[in-house]
Amino acid sequence: MTLSGPALAQRPESRVSPRPVPPELIRLVAQVQLVEWPLWTESAARTRREILELCRLQAARGLTLLSWLAQDGLDGVTPPAIGPAPALPERTTPPPSGFMGRSGGGAVVWEGDLGWLLDSRRLCGGRRERMYAAADRLPIEVRELVVANWTWALGTPHGGQATAAYLAGGAYPDDGYSAARATVALLRLWERRPGYRPAMAAAWAATRTPADWCKAAELRAAYGAAVPIFSYPRVPLPPRTVVRPWIARLLGVQKDQQG
User: Where is this region: Disordered (predicted)?
Assistant: First the structure.
């Protein structure tokens, strides 16, 4: 396994220090994590395929938001949506009061012109290419934060616990019972199916990094001094790590094998 750019090695602390983040972007960082990870502890083949699709969606959405945050961090202005939104089906029923950014009962809730981002269905077509294009525009130093977190999750014995708890907690922030069950389901998949770990780690790294960006920006706003974004150290990947094509594309890594 080889990575594009400098040789794979542990890096010093991140020096990427973001500016304060607009509230609308902070809300989106939390909102995109509202996906329906499974609650079953014994996942069937179909459930495992659904988890892979969710991992790809979350990785693409997280990197899209990160590209917006990076743009905002440079010019201090909330970035516009990237290109014209692709035509997507409109919802057929009105959402419940206060219900935002999540699919349920066959209805998809739209948030302005960001329905293409918040739609939690399978990533394909125009919205996929739009998110991939946003990921391609990430500055190298920002992408390295994501890749460092990704390698750490795969290279540490604590990767399963970290990824499962974070993904489930973000998906069910107000439902501790569902969050606990989803954590167990994801953790068992991580432990029993090593081939799924790169995808789960990619989803975790791509959604955690924007959240850490917002935390660093919040500290900067509170204390008036630049605060570097936290990232885990970059470590060597385990032997025979299988990198799927979409992971190679989104994270900018080169693949030896494809799943």
Answer: 1-20
**Rg of the chain on CA atoms, in Å:** 18
Report the 10 Å Cβ neighbour count for 34: 17
Phi, psi of 200 (to 5 degrees): -65, -40
Distance CA 136, CA 138 (A): 6
Judge contact between 153 and 205, C-beta under 8 A. Answer: yes
For residue range 185-222, list pLDDT tens digits in order: 999 999 999 999 999 999 999 999 999 999 999 998 88
| Contact indicator for 159, 186 with CB cutoff of 8 Å | no
Could you tell me how far CA 75 lies from the centroid of its own chain? 23
Contact assessment for residue 259 and residue 241, using Cβ atoms and an 8 Å cutoff: no
